[in-house]
Amino acid sequence: MNAGVDRDRVARAVRELLGAIGADPESAELRATPGRVAESYAEFFAGVGVDPQQFLTDAVPVDGETGELVLMRDISLRSICEHHLLPFRGRAHVAYQPRDRVVGLSALPRVVAALAERPQVQERLGEQIAQAIDDGLAPLGVLVVLEASHGCVADRGVRETSAEAVTIASRGSLSDPAARAEVIALIAPGGDRKPL
Q: Across residues 28-33, what is the average pLDDT?
């Protein structure tokens, strides 16, 4: 959990917000809400100030003795949209074509979480994940596909509860359209998944 979040300050701001919308922050129903929100924010924003490169430092040299592609699909993704401070949730699919090093598979979800757990937009998040992996592993190529539902689309404005946004970020050899198409086909194998 993010030790950098000033929980007392967040709680004071939530009390002020509750008063600003006409609610009584001292009522029995809302008295504990500011503290709960402060704890939630410490969790939601745990990635603020975290360097995702720290999760890529234990890369293992493979000296050409690796497969052509490393793909981890369906990494759970939760972030807070910086425009309305509403959540967006979905899946990240992260692929890289190793050059001479690979990293433990648990590092990929950690990189995703470190970058997602801060005020964010999906388009930038995919680019940041791709760049972190590119910088940390120097692979031949990187491809990041994010699929997410956004609270700002589902719960306000147009209220499209079924809409999902799909973004793609790529580097190196996986920027080639044919290579990208091959990886995207692997993300949605068979007919049991929704097409991208």
A: 97
